[in-house]
């Protein structure tokens, strides 16, 4: 699922030239908890973008007013700020193909009954989880080059398994086998991700106000079925309230705000974000022709959850596939936003810069009434 999820978002959201088979092959080899370091930069890019573009002005301090905006917010996190290398350890359940390779490298064909021993060791390896170490380029790091050892992801495996096998006469034998290997994956950064300047994202967005100095913002995408993946949906809302409605504030409009949103691909993936804080703006000009500088400070959180069971066909007979579940937390906890909004008749265009653990750029274009 992780490979499918990342292929989908890379193709749909980043507009890059990532090839699906590149990422699919990489994550087939690097599944499991230890692979989170490999995909962390791209997930941090998405999570950092999620809470961007939520506002570009404070609502008016009115009892009632009509202010409708419908359009698209676009966010981009510079990839230069994200990790290009990683080193991680974690648990891993090998599938049949991987276990067969380890067994073949562990048991020489000069050993007595080597074929039976390899089959038994492969089955034993598939039936247990092992601690592995993974290090090398991340998904946005160096693309693999056979002449450059630093461009390759390496997997270190150190384990022990008890095997039981029958000799050609049917006599049972039991022994313990150790395996300690460095697996060269021939894998590095994916496609052209490492050459991209930004990790982009976009959100359909509608804002409506004003009632008692309050504006409602909605992010919504109707359920969309993605073959072989699941149903994609996006729901989110936020409110801004102009504090000047109760106590007049000179020179600028100041608003308190709260936002929450969730993106799901049922039944295996969920990405959610929450942000709250204050923002201020000052309109300079007329109702349909103006410039509005704005700024805001937000506390925020974002996370990605995945729950997936691999196909049983990837594993040997009688081997139960591992249940893969993990959660990645966004590393941004606050953001300072500085921006400018331009109103041209029925259009509103804005751009801002966001400063936090990871910085980002945001722009928006909206049909405005």
Give a description of the structure:
This protein has a domain at 2-14 and 54-82 and 197-368: Porin (Beta Barrel), CATH 2.40.160. It is built from 5 helices and 16 strands. The protein has helices spanning 2-14, 20-29, 36-50, 96-106, 114-126; strands spanning 64-78, 85-92, 130-137, 154-166, 172-184, 198-211, 214-226, 230-242, 253-266, 269-281, 284-286, 289-308, 324-329, 334-344, 347-355, 360-368. A 10-stranded antiparallel beta barrel has the order 1-6-7-8-9-10-12-14-15-16. The protein has a 4-stranded antiparallel beta sheet with strand order 2-3-4-5. Strand 14 and strand 15 form a beta hairpin. Helix 1 (2-14) runs antiparallel to helix 2 (20-29) and helix 4 crosses helix 5 (114-126). The radius of gyration is 26 Å and the shape is elongated. The relative contact order is 0.19.
Helices and strands, with pairings:
Elements: H1 2-14, H2 20-29, H3 36-50, E1 64-78, E2 85-92, H4 96-106, H5 114-126, E3 130-137, E4 154-166, E5 172-184, E6 198-211, E7 214-226, E8 230-242, E9 253-266, E10 269-281, E11 284-286, E12 289-308, E13 324-329, E14 334-344, E15 347-355, E16 360-368
Antiparallel strand pairs: 1-6, 1-16, 2-3, 3-4, 4-5, 6-7, 7-8, 8-9, 9-10, 10-12, 11-12, 12-13, 12-14, 14-15, 15-16
